[in-house]
Design goal:
Length: 302
Amino acid sequence: MDLAMIGLGKMGMNMATRLVRGGHRVVGYARTRATVEEAERLGIEGAHSLEEAVGRLNSPRIAWVMIPAGKATDDTISHLSSLLRKGDIVIDGGNSNYKDDARHAALLEAKGIEFVDCGTSGGIWGISEGYSLMIGGKPEVAEKMRPIFETLAPAVDKGWGVVGPHGAGHFVKMVHNGIEYGMMQAFAEGFSILKAKKEFGLDLAQVSHIWQHGSVVRSWLLDLAANALDEDAQLKDVKPWVADSGEGRWTVFESIDLDVPAPVITLALQMRFASRDEENYTARMLAALRNQFGGHAIKKAE
């Protein structure tokens, strides 16, 4: 099958490359000429506009959108709606809010264009390990693209599936990322406790490798932690500043709306916020209060 990959960031580029290696024809579009040229070196056909990318596809035309959530995705899907025709398909494989999917589906459906939301997980390793694909939309439309999903997934019958109607794919991916936040936080705290026990002189890389075999906490995240510790157990070159993609926030909002307690995911999100506070006024106030009521010593800022 052939399709256009709209957005050639790291993940979009890797997905397009995996598809090309799997025998698919991919036309890749990016805003910068250098990115398009890089894609061409990987066997992806380059396009320098949405019009060119769509115009080079055979019908039914498939456009896989892999760009940041929000206005960028809104504008791109709106533009595609004016370029595509009845029977064509748009896949949003980015991290869009699931609430946007119904609006996008309605916009396209009015012109006879099909829409699929596809929560995509796999990061930079997906090009070799395959991607986890959580698909929302009409099953019969997804079935038309089975060869694409089977190529991107870890196996033809593993790691992908239609999970529900429009919005369900991004909703499942949103909760997936919330769970990821909690798991990452637990590993980070655990290794921090191990590191703090100075008298044992623990080799954190050694511990991570022991846990990789037979332990109930063995996982891909643990494998990645082991990789990082092998490179630098002190993580001295890593700034303690942790971003969030937005999906962790949305998961917390949903837990509140649905009256479902999610303290671990919520606290993991809050800890990411705390990592960015170089001023850390909260900690300063806590220290000042302890000094005020108990005369506890304050460490003066340098």
